[in-house]
Design brief:
Radius of gyration: 26 Å
Order of helices and strands: HEHEHEHHEHEEHHHHH
Strand content: 5-15%
């Protein structure tokens, strides 16, 4: 048989870079799975697929890792068709069928609910995401899925930390692994170590059929846009800063913060065995000198 024509230098370089990127993503996703115990032997993993670059990349990398994983687990891609006007219903089924992965398309008209409840001009994203999460959790419970995989990446985790810090006065974020409030679902985020820029480059190289998230006409949450703008500016001025912050989220030192529920500040360095006065005693009680004076005069 005739030999295939060699790739021209630019194409060869592009293929080399794409292979390096894929290897890096597999390494980062595999490390996240191992670090947080995301997947066990026998797990049924429901991969939530929206049609965006993040969830396509998550599914693609998990399928690659599944072939050589040290444990056996199944993957089912699940998309929720929320009945937004103009949604291209054929795109995801065609793609998923072409790669031979097990998939389910759920249909629930959350779009009508959101447009009826949210006042005109207000962002729909918060209510939309809650309704979507409820539908996916219900399906997972009904079908015995043991893991629910979401496509949030490293930059999402950092942005959520700052959203909570700046707008909700608390230090919390978006953990790589989470038990749902009702205790029924384990949510995993395999892309927790992956940069958004790398995901964008990978999605372009793989030519995923991206479905834009602008069909409902809503604007991205203003607070999240502010945080994203800040993070982009930081990264331009000091490359690597977001990576440093992401690493800091995994190196928490309770004794260096101010939460008495996480660290026993009350007993730190105390000399006596008795209970310490509370804030009411400090702010509203009588002085010790007054008590001593009353005692001497009696």
């Amino acid at each position: 048989m005739p030999l295939s024509e060699p790739l021209p230098p630019p194409a060869r370089r592009a293929a080399h870079e794409a292979n390096r990127l894929a290897k890096r993503l597999r390494h980062q996703v595999g490390r996240a799975i191992a670090d947080f115990g995301m997947i066990e032997d026998g797990d049924k993993v429901m991969v939530c697929l929206s049609g965006g670059k993040d969830s396509y990349t998550m599914l693609d990398i998990l399928l690659q890792l599944q072939k050589k994983a040290p444990v056996s687990f199944s993957i089912t891609a699940v998309n929720l068709d929320q009945k937004q006007p103009g949604f291209p219903e054929h795109v995801l089924p065609d793609y998923l069928a072409s790669i031979g992965v097990d998939y389910r398309i759920l249909e629930q008209d959350t779009y009508s609910v959101v447009t009826r409840v949210v006042p005109e001009g207000k962002t729909m994203c918060s209510l939309c995401s809650r309704l979507r999460r409820g539908a996916l959790y219900t399906f997972a419970e009904q079908n015995g899925f043991t893991r629910i995989a979401l496509g949030h990446h490293r930059d999402d985790l950092v942005a959520t930390f700052f959203l909570n810090l700046f707008f909700h006065s608390k230090i919390s974020g978006m953990p790589p692994k989470l038990l749902s409030d009702d205790g029924k679902h384990v949510v995993i985020r395999p892309l927790a170590y992956v940069r958004e820029d790398d995901i964008a480059a990978y999605a372009e190289a793989r030519k995923f059929p991206i479905i834009p998230c602008n069909l409902c006409g809503s604007q991205e949450n203003l607070q999240r846009k502010q945080v994203k703008k800040m993070m982009d500016a930081w990264e331009r001025e000091t490359p690597g800063r977001i990576e440093q912050i992401a690493r800091a989220l995994g190196d928490i030192r309770p004794s260096q913060l101010s939460d008495p529920k996480l660290f026993d500040f009350l007993s730190l360095g105390t000399r006596g065995a008795g209970d310490l006065p509370d804030a009411h005693a400090w702010l509203g009680g009588e002085s010790r000198e007054s008590d001593m004076g009353n005692g001497e005069s009696s």
